[in-house]
Amino acid sequence: MAQALTKETGKAISATHLPVDRLEFPAADSVVILRGSGRAWQCDLRDYSLRPAPAGTAESGRLKPLASEHPSRRTGAETFITFANRTQGSITIHWVNASGARQSYGNLRPGAEHRQHTFAGHVWAVTDAQGQFLACFEAAEDGGLAVIEPGTRAQAEKPKKTPEDQSPENRSPDGRWQAFFQTNNLHLRNLQTREEFALTRDGSAEHGYAGRVHWSPDSTRLVALRTRKGDDRKVYYVESSPKDQLQPRLHSYNYLKPGDRIPLSKPHLFAVENRRAIPVSDELFPNPWSISDLQWDPDSRRFTFLYNQRGHQVLRWIAVDARSGQATAIIDEKSDTFIDYAGKKFLRYLPKTGEAIWMSERDGWNHLYLYDARAGKVKNQVTRGPWVVRGVETVDEEKRQIWFRAGGFRPGQDPYYVHYGRVNFDGTGLVMLTEGDGHHAVQFSPDRRFLVDTWSRVDLPPVSELRRADNGSLVCELERADATELLKTGWRAPERFVAKGRDGATDIYGVIWRPMKLDPARRYPVIEDIYAGPHGAFVPKSFSAYHKAQSLAELGFIVVKMDGMGTSHRSKQFHDVCWKNLGDSGFPDRILWIKAAAAKYPYLDLERVGIFGGSAGGQSATRALLAHGDFYKVAVADCGCHDNRMDKIWWNELWMGWPLGPHYEEQSNVTQAHKLQGKLMLVVGEMDENVDPASTMQVVNALIKADKDFDLLVMTGAGHGAAETPYANRRRQDFFVRHLLGVEPRRQP
């Protein structure tokens, strides 16, 4: 298969890294459709020959462009969108935040693809090199492919902003009025008389009205956002070796950083009958990071919106009276540290009953609460206990039930394993629908009477079961994967390993990879694969025949990975370790975990410990040699966000706080570079549009000033994750072989 794909694509394809995202099985027994990298091939299984899939074959996983751009209205499960640029020019990818403002996430060259981390429900807009709108897409739970091609613009182009042709969203429900924006102000047009008039005159280019208009159901009121512009910060980089010209090319993109002035949007209420604004006091929403989820009650008496305060310590659901403009807080969530709005936010308003379902960590665990949305009081806590809700699958308003994903519910199991459950609104009738000791994914039957539960562990191949959805009881086991042939090759599964963290009580979960031909009589250097980003947990939980770590282990290392304190999906106390403390990176837990593994397995040589990581992991890998050089001896840091003041605004302000304090500087790898011990290799892609490449170069500058020796690899033409390219990966392996094994790589015996 790899040989056939190499021939078809003209690129060297490894059998362990096939560019295939999905397999589809047509009626023909000997044919399979392969999809990946924005292409589709038909493979004849008799000889593994490939040809392009028939034109009529639907492209599985392809996202349909939205009819019009709108704000990101929900934050669901973590997922990815693969953007494929099939146009002849460069395109720019923008995240559309909850206020409708765009935030650039970089450029994509013609023919290129980019896999973008996001959350289900987030909206992404695409523009051409001149800034003209091409399309926008909404992320799905299971990811998807966003194809931008010449026909995309015709399919998804936004309506032109002229009075005669306005978005239907801005038309009143009774069809009488059309709202539109002109010279940064809000106007109304009577569609019967064609009369036009301005509702506002105070808008300006710096502080104007724009975006979607929210009409009351009775068409007597409307709400529009007025937005004060933020900083116009740009990041610049030089493409040293463009394919289409000799001279280097300068690139730039919009990129706000911590502490920058952000776009600030606030809702304004207007009455149609007297053509006047109804003042709304902003006392409850003085400094928004975002205003989202704006909606009217069916009776038009009030509208509500979700206010996320900059600094992320206040998340408030606010109601505004349609006649008086009086604002009241229905839900007022506060935290002394942070509210994880990016990963643990859920609000479902139930206007028929005047209730709302809300997600909160207020009792120390991530759970659901039922609110009286009229009185602004908690009716009851829906879920509770020393476990966490990982996400809401479905809310059944008629049956008053919630279907959800949970972690830590099954005692004795890894708390990161996802299970599925159901509970009544009042907190009764809690039932877990999955059982096996592993990580679960389910598919429900169309009538939701049954579900197929597929679960596995890193050391257990997948098991598929048919279960009843009413009580989770097992109907039958459908299939159990057999790894016998795989084991015959000498393959060994990674080992799950648990040890106590810094407090001596909390379990820290991780995995260990060993060489297939392990000799317990030898002593093996240890290498940690680190990623300590607080937005998730990163130790693999499901079965896979291939792990990147195994290829490193085969060179003669023990490779480990664990989730230390400060990462997500555990208690609030566990997560809060990261607050204003990203420099911690969970190292006190990680070092104890590795020492516990060495106590059990004496062939782990703790005099030779290395570490590597990318992005936030690159920051941590460097930090290991600055703050824990007595334990870690060798580090490879790829595209690190080495100073949190240099990185993207949303991620860093969420965990490190706002306004910026001295802790930002104190935890910078730049200011601490003089403390370097051990061997350090820095890797950076010159065209990284996720983390500013200058962040790595500032560490380089500080190391030079401190007269410290280090290695630097600049990958020309590479973006974020440059160390995962074949050349840089080989250099990383060589670095560990040279400095931990003490031999020259690829030496002749």
Any descriptors?
749 residues; mainly beta; 4-stranded antiparallel beta sheet
Task: Write a structural description.
With 749 residues, the protein is mostly beta strands. Among the domains are: 51 residues, no CATH class; 79 residues, Immunoglobulin-like, CATH 2.60.40; 254 residues, 3-Layer(aba) Sandwich (Rossmann fold), CATH 3.40.50. Helix content is 13%, strand content 37%. It has eleven helices and 44 strands. The strands form eleven sheets. It has an eight-stranded mixed beta sheet with strand order 37-38-40-39-41-42-43-44, sandwiched between helices. β15 and β16 form a beta hairpin. The longest helix has 16 residues. The radius of gyration is 27 Å and the shape is globular. The chain starts with a helix and ends in an 8-residue tail after the last helix.
Mean pLDDT comes to 93
Q: What is the overall shape?
A: globular
- Spatial gap, N to C terminus: 33 Å
CATH architecture label name of the domain at 488-741: 3-Layer(aba) Sandwich
Structural class, by secondary structure, is mainly beta
**Main CATH class of the domain at 488-741:** Alpha Beta
Q: How many beta-strand runs? A: 44
The fold-level CATH name of the domain at 488-741 is: Rossmann fold
Q: Provide the low-confidence segments as ranges.
A: 157-166
Kindly provide the radius of gyration, computed on alpha-carbon positions and rounded to a whole number of angstroms.
Answer: 27 Å
Strand content: 35-45%
Number of helices: 11
Largest beta sheet, briefly?
A: 8 strands, mixed
Helix content: 10-25%
What order do the strands of the largest sheet run in, or round the barrel if closed? 37-38-40-39-41-42-43-44
Q: CATH superfamily membership of the domain at 488-741, which one?
A: Alpha/Beta hydrolase fold, catalytic domain
